[in-house]
């Protein structure tokens, strides 16, 4: 087996690992990102308690009342959560961690590593597009100086006027 074939196989396996990670994160995003393990455990405990109250005698006052849940406000989802997860970071990571993770994954998903027109190149291009979008979104949110020139407003009325001598 030649060295180029070996390198190609390694690159393809790393790309497949990255694709599986992205698919898993995307699946988590579409299922329900707000449900934590504590909420799932509380629901299981609540359902276990309700199933045990159904075995009480009919004369018991608790068996005739429907169970009531305490109204708790649902937390607002963090709009950056998905992008942090896509880069394999904990929410709230700083800009240097985001940059390091992006460089690590962007190197793996470089379409130039695969033969032109191959299915691996198409997958790498798609993964790279998702990485770039997540990186750009996180950089805009974390770097306050990134958009400083876009936010500047110039007042052209106070600019010096050229005087014409006639």
Describe the structure.
With 166 residues, this protein is mainly α. The chain is built from six helices and no strands. The protein has helices spanning 3-31, 37-53, 61-64, 81-86, 95-108, 119-142. Helix 1 (3-31) packs across helix 6. The chain is elongated. The chain starts with a helix and ends in a 24-residue tail after the last helix. Mean pLDDT is 74; it is low at 52-64.
Keywords:
166 residues; mainly alpha; elongated
SSE diagram, text form:
Blueprint: H1 3-31, H2 37-53, H3 61-64, H4 81-86, H5 95-108, H6 119-142
Number of strands: 0
Please state roughly what percent of the residues sit in beta strands, choosing from under 5%, 5-15%, 15-25%, 25-35%, 35-45% or over 45%.
under 5%
Helical content band = 55-70%
N-to-C CA distance = 84 Å
Q: SSE order in H/E notation? A: HHHHHH
Helices, by number, come to 6
Give average pLDDT, whole number.
Answer: 74
Low-confidence stretches: 52-64
Work out the radius of gyration: 27 Å
Please outline what is shown here:
The chain has 166 residues and is mainly α.
């Amino acid at each position: 087996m030649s060295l180029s074939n070996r390198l190609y196989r390694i690159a393809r396996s790393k790309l497949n690992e990255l694709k599986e990670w992205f698919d898993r994160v995307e699946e988590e995003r579409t299922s329900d990102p707000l449900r934590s393990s504590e909420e799932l455990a509380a629901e299981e405990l609540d359902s276990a308690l309700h199933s045990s109250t159904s075995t009480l005698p009919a004369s018991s006052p608790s068996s005739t009342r429907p169970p009531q849940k305490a109204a708790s406000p649902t937390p607002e989802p963090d709009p950056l959560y998905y992008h942090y997860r896509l880069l394999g970071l904990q929410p709230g990571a700083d800009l240097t961690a985001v940059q390091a993770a992006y460089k690590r994954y962007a190197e793996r998903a470089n379409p130039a590593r695969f033969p032109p027109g191959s299915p691996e190149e198409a997958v790498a291009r798609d993964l790279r597009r998702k990485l770039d979008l997540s990186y750009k979104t996180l950089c805009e949110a974390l770097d306050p100086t990134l958009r400083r020139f876009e936010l500047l407003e110039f007042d052209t009325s106070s600019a010096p006027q050229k005087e014409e001598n006639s």
